[in-house]
Amino acid sequence: MASLNNLKKRIGGVKSINQITSAMELVAATKMRKAQEAALASRFYAFDALEILGNVTDYLVKSGAELEKTFFARTVEKTLILIVTSDKGLVGSFNSSIIKKVEKFLKENADDFKAGKFSFVTVGQKGTDFVRRLGITPAGHFSNYGDIIDVGEIEELAGILDRGYRKRKWDRIVSFSMNFTSALSQEVVERRILPFEAKQIRKTVEEVIPNTGRYSNLKAEISKRRATETLDYIMEPSPKEILDDLLPHLLKIQVYHLMLEANASEHSSRRVTMKNASDNAHELTNELTLAYNKTRQEMITKELGELTGTVAAITNNV
Amino acid sequence: MMHVRIDSLRGILFESDAESLTVGTKSGEITVLPNHRSLITSLRPGAAKVIDANGDEKYFEVKSGFLEVKNIKSGTFLTLLVD
Q1: How many folded domains does chain A comprise?
Q2: CA distances from residue A78 to A87, A158, A198, B38 in whole angstroms, order as listed
Q3: Which of A221, A231, A243, B70 has the greatest number of beta carbons closer than 10 A?
């Protein structure tokens, strides 16, 4: 039988945990709402930007333009893996599921990995730790981004990706991050960011739009607006100038959007995890209180028993 | 009639049918009318003027961005990405 004092201490402990997790749940819920709004607000921009990118890619590939060919098809020698995770823990399976997917990817491409053909850029402390555990120093690592990311903050990250690609430090960029579908469901997605490929980009566009909810009817609208034939673009002032402006910008937007989604997912995931923790703590408090009361009752009964026993003994003796 | 959508990172600024769009591009000011050929151009800081279906003028601030004109079977679609 656990002692009363012990039980009391445990109840106190569980109650304070409950307070902390409830507070974290509320904080995460607010952050989630804000991050979600930001992600949703920028969705159309990201979506249209990607559509344009898809069209341009299609146009350039079909017209056989030599311009900026480096941003498009390229023989893949080296690959950069971009891992987007969170800085802090207590987010349930958020980080572990991303890392699991990366591990799977590395396993499938074990030969390339052993040959040192992979570089890593990480966002978030957890991802950096993971890459370091592999015995690799990431080519770039970022942490301490704000809760809601500003497009200006992406500049440096997008710059690293862009420059490394131009300098042929890597010929392909694959990203692993969490895609936000709803507050309750997020999934890890593997995306090829560079080289740009029309089909791949359109797939991303479709992922951007949820299958259900108030944006779902967008899909019909897209197919109406989407060019089925290759567009015969005029590019002003010149194709080269446009692409020099457009491609880095679109790369930045793609990364920006990815981060927003990851952000919203992180907060949703944390909220759910904290809610579960609070619920568990609540249940545990109930169980412990029950045990406490039972023990207390038992002790009272025992004392009463002793009391009456003693009284009876005394009266009999007189 | 053509369809115009102006996107910013904070959301859609304008989306509707329109008669014309006038905007400053890096190679000069242009006015796009329905059935314009497909075009991609980068924008210069200034204002974008849209004349909507009712003939009203609307102005939007442009710091930088891009304009895509898509002339396809289902119509003429203009997309502006502005910062």
Answers
A1: 1
A2: 27, 18, 21, 36
A3: B70
Any domain includes A202: yes
Instruction: Give the CATH superfamily of B2-82.
Output: F0F1 ATP synthase delta/epsilon subunit, N-terminal (2.60.15.10)
Q: Which of B23, B81, B82 to mutate to test the interface with A (most CBs of A within 10 A)?
A: B81
Evaluate whether residue A176 is within a structural domain.
yes
pLDDT, one tens digit per residue, over A270-289 is 999 999 999 999 999 999 99
Chain B, nearest residue to A257 by Cα = B9
Instruction: For residues B83 and B69, give the distance between their C-alpha atoms in angstroms, rounded to a whole number.
Output: 18
CB pairs under 8 A between A and B: 81
Q: For residue A48, give the nearest of B5, B41, B42 by CB distance.
A: B5
Q: Is B55 on the interface with A (CB under 8 A)?
A: no
In a domain, A239, yes or no: yes
Element (H, E) at A304: helix A239-317
Find the closest chain B residue to A224 by CA distance: B74
Percent of chain A residues past pLDDT 90, beyond the cut:
36
Using alpha carbons, select from A42, A112, A40 the residue that is nearest to residue A77: A112
Shortest CA gap B8–chain A (Å): 6
Q: How many Cβ atoms are within 10 Å of B13's Cβ, its own excluded?
A: 17
pTM: 0.79
The residue range of the domain holding A220 is 46-273
Whether residue B28 is predicted with pLDDT greater than 60 in this model: the reply is yes
Q: Is the Cβ of A279 closer than 8 Å to some Cβ of chain B?
A: no
Domain membership of residue A175 (yes or no) is yes
Say if the ipTM goes beyond 0.85: yes
Which tens digit of pLDDT belongs to each residue from A142-182? 888 877 778 888 888 999 998 898 888 888 999 999 988 77
B-chain residue closest to A231, CA distance:
B38
Distance, CA of A88 to CA of A144 (rounded, Å): 10
